[in-house]
Design a protein that fits this description.
Layout (H helix, E strand, L loop, with lengths): L1 H18 L36 H4 L10 E18 L27 E11 L4 E8 L3 E5 L12 E16 L4 E19 L7 E22 L2 E8 L2 E11 L7 E9 L2 E10 L2 E10 L6 E6 L19 E6 L5 E11 L4 E10 L17 E10 L5 E12 L2 E7 L3 E21 L1
Antiparallel strand pairs: 1-2, 1-20, 2-3, 3-5, 4-5, 5-6, 6-7, 7-8, 7-9, 8-11, 9-10, 10-13, 11-12, 12-15, 13-14, 15-16, 16-17, 17-18, 18-20, 19-20
Length: 433
């Protein structure tokens, strides 16, 4: 029985360690939704139609024609996610009862931790019709880490993913009412994923992999009336050919090189902005093509000698180490927001959003306990000088309980719920010159 269980647990543990992406707290899937400091207070409503500052270089390059002269903006977003697992009848290897060892780490503690996500933007108008922009940001990432020895330690301990994006773009004002824009993205993605396979005699399992991918984005802005703007923005898929290594700290004969193809999804946003007296109203709908993430196949690119009970990691170059099923769905995000001008120097921001998850109960893992989330946000903008803008924003995410029910024949079931929430604090300063 013990040998059978080990044979079933090893592929499960490795599949989860290789395939699970670090859990994001501010957008569906593993995306990071906080791509400016000024947008936080509106829950990023109306992003493709708003034109407050240089962050439009990311949200819709066509809007750069509405930013005169030159402007630079820098933002810091401080994120505090919380992911707490509650067991609901896990069995066999997941139960932490005889013949399996106890769980010194219990239910894993809080898998979330503080994270800081910076953004920087620059726009420059060459003339009234032609503008250039640059966005430096982190569109994917964050980190989860559970207590050593927790119930699910052999499937997920630490998950960290970092993506850095450089996005130059141009915009052209076709007429008094229509502008268009386009840009290219160069993104580097790095991933570190670990799990504890001491239960199987293999020690700590670690995957490190990275790659650079390329994509594009296009946008349009229509001034429907003197007080109303409509913006549309499309961002393409980016394909990564990840390359890296897998290591076992007590079974070096299983170490080797691997590769895996990962495609981050495309997205389309339609936004509206309307000014009425001291009020500014905005809203948008965003579609994200997460159905492109169906599975992750990890291939050995070097030969590994026999590892583990029964030679389970006997792998020649070109052999499939594991395939993890995601089976994600496309998602929709809906947001509305409002600004109120207290004075020429001060503006109050409000926002509300609903963000769907691409994950499913059947394939959700402890690495990514994502679920539908509801945003409630507020912020304030203050102009300390004619050319300077300071934005402060706060958002709380109410996240639906994320059920985990992963069953492996002969090994048992990891069953329970994650109680999740997140807080976001943002600050941004913009300077025109």
């Amino acid at each position: 029985m013990a040998s059978t269980v080990r044979k079933l647990l090893i592929p499960l543990a490795v599949a989860t360690a290789l395939g699970g992406m670090a859990s994001s707290v501010v957008a569906g899937g593993f995306a990071i939704g906080t791509q400016s400091g000024s947008g936080t207070g509106n829950a990023f409503a109306g992003g493709a139609a708003a034109a407050d500052d240089a962050s439009v270089a990311w949200f819709n390059p066509a809007a750069m024609t509405l930013i005169p002269g030159k402007q630079i903006a820098g933002a810091l977003n401080v994120l505090k996610p919380s992911f707490k697992f509650e067991n609901r009848g896990s069995t066999a290897a997941f139960s932490c009862v005889s013949p399996f060892p106890a769980c010194p780490g219990g239910e894993g503690g809080d898998g979330g931790d503080w994270a800081v996500v910076p953004n920087a933007f620059f726009t420059m108008a060459f003339n009234p019709k032609l503008s250039f922009g640059l966005a430096l940001n982190a569109p994917f990432g964050l980190k989860t880490e559970y207590d050593a020895g927790w119930r699910g330690d052999f499937t997920a301990r630490k998950s960290e993913i970092k993506a850095v994006n450089i996005n130059p773009s141009i915009a052209y004002k076709v007429s008094d009412t229509v502008s268009i824009g386009a840009g290219v993205s160069v993104q580097q993605l790095e991933a570190e994923l670990t799990s504890n396979l001491a239960l199987l005699g293999l020690g700590l399992f670690t995957l490190n992999a990275d790659d650079i991918g390329y994509g594009f984005n296009v946008g349009a802005m229509i001034q429907a009336s003197p007080s109303t703007r409509i913006g549309a923005h499309y961002r393409s898929k980016i394909k990564y050919d990840l390359e890296g290594t897998v290591t076992f700290d007590t079974a070096a004969q299983g170490n080797g090189n691997v590769r895996a193809d990962l495609e981050v999804p495309d997205s389309f946003s339609l936004s509206i902005f309307h000014a009425e007296g001291n009020w500014e109203l905005m809203g948008d709908v965003t579609w994200t093509g997460w159905s492109s993430v169906q599975q992750l196949q990890v291939i050995r690119t070097s030969t590994a000698t026999t590892v583990g009970p029964g030679g389970l990691f006997q792998g020649a170059e070109g052999a499939t180490l594991t395939t993890l099923q995601f089976q994600w769905d496309d998602t929709w995000r809906y947001a509305i927001g409002a600004n109120y001008k207290l004075s020429s120097q001060t503006k109050l921001r409000f926002g509300f959003a609903f963000d769907e998850t691409p994950t499913k109960d059947a394939t959700r893992t402890a690495r990514l306990p994502d679920q539908n989330r509801t945003w409630v946000a507020l912020g304030v903008q203050f102009r300390p000088s004619k050319s300077g803008i300071l934005d402060l924003g706060y958002a709380h995410e109410f996240i639906q309980d994320a059920k985990i029910n992963n069953t492996v024949a002969g090994a048992g079931t990891l069953s329970g719920e994650f109680k999740n929430k997140a807080d976001i604090f943002s600050i941004q300063y913009s300077q025109s010159f």
